[in-house]
């Protein structure tokens, strides 16, 4: 793989994919804004996920729940008490770190802090003289736990304000709507609820571009099934999550399963699919067997009966849940990493090219007049194609330079309008990956492109 984080950050900034957040004010740590190209890619990623896990799954339904939820939701889910990271401050330079990250970095991944208690982590850091990544000293405060939920308040007067939270995961919006969805769709267990939306976490050590941010989007799918079938469905979603990535174009050599050593408070089994990011093997998505924990807790805290009644046997039970969760931004970073390539051309020049699956490329085609005096016909073609796909138009600079610009953002097809177009209504179509060109009738273009961008 040829991508480094620096190369990706520079390319993204220079080509309108992702910019640093609030940049003209000096930025705002670990926030990023998607530009004109980036927003298209991310939307396409979300669309591909939705198509696979909601549209094509006969028994799955979508929701778009509120970000701000009744605070009792987070008490029921356990987030107000258990959603925290072990933080330590460097006494010398006052920077804040996660104890588990310090241990992982120091041991180069050989020691797994997930299986350690806070006391064991403190002892390890002391005994191995783990140093502060900022100043190199080894003098830390004891571990304190730090809740990751962002708080805000709701109320009209200062006195009457209630603390509410920006949701740290979208999943709870699916759980609290379990009965609504089941009743309104008359869904029979097993069935799924999928959602895409923003989540917020006051991460102590965010970073690595869009890998870990404080505001991000999640694509989550909860599969409600009967206890006893949960193991089977867990395996099913492990495979479905893997297949989705491979179908998007990921090399299986760059993916691996990793079982969790320490299970979250709600989980019976959990694993990640890791991807070989420029920072090394790291979590891309998670598959969790959440048992009946969430629905049972919401039943307890809300006082509402969350049982499902089997329409055939009349049996009542609280379903188990298999969750598949993936960050849209993290998948975007993985897709950028996977797509990035530098090729040496016959003339010795280097071409940077993003080999995205055409389904997620920002623009499906770039329409390029060979010369400016062909722009009228080229613009008309661009307008026509834009009714069917996201396209771009470029008449600035040599045709070679325009091809390079499109290669760098991964546009799968460059359509050139030349003097023959005026005579016989044909255009050349250049393939991004092979750089080969074919000549086809402009009337066949839509059909040609539609076939290639199917997912
Ligand atoms: N509902 C379960 C849940 O939220 P998680 O493992 O904490 O599980 C799921 O998060 C996915 O969300 C991760 O695999 C990752 O892709 C993404 N994610 C989590 N925290 C993130 C962050 N701070 N920035 C970007 N993506 C994040």
UniProtKB/TrEMBL annotation:
UniProt-listed SUPFAM superfamilies: Class II aaRS ABD-related, Class II aaRS and biotin synthetases
Keywords: Aminoacyl-tRNA synthetase, ATP-binding, Cytoplasm, Ligase, Nucleotide-binding, Protein biosynthesis
UniProt GO molecular function: ATP binding; bis(5'-nucleosyl)-tetraphosphatase (asymmetrical) activity; catalytic activity, acting on a protein; glycine-tRNA ligase activity; transferase activity
Compartment(s) of residence: Cytoplasm
Catalytic reaction list: tRNA(Gly) + glycine + ATP = glycyl-tRNA(Gly) + AMP + diphosphate
One biological process term in Gene Ontology: glycyl-tRNA aminoacylation
Domain of life: Bacteria
GO CC, alphabetical: cytosol; extracellular exosome; microvesicle
Coiled coil: none
Keyword Cytoplasm: yes
Pfam family, one: tRNA-synt_2b
Binding site for ATP: 201-203, 211-216, 283-284, 327-330
Enzyme class name: ligase
Subunit record text: Homodimer.
Family: Belongs to the class-II aminoacyl-tRNA synthetase family.
NCBIfam families xrefs: glyS_dimeric, PRK04173.1
Reported function: Catalyzes the attachment of glycine to tRNA(Gly).
Name under which the protein is recorded: Glycine--tRNA ligase
Organism of derivation: Candidatus Protoclostridium stercorigallinarum
Gene name for this UniProt entry: glyQS
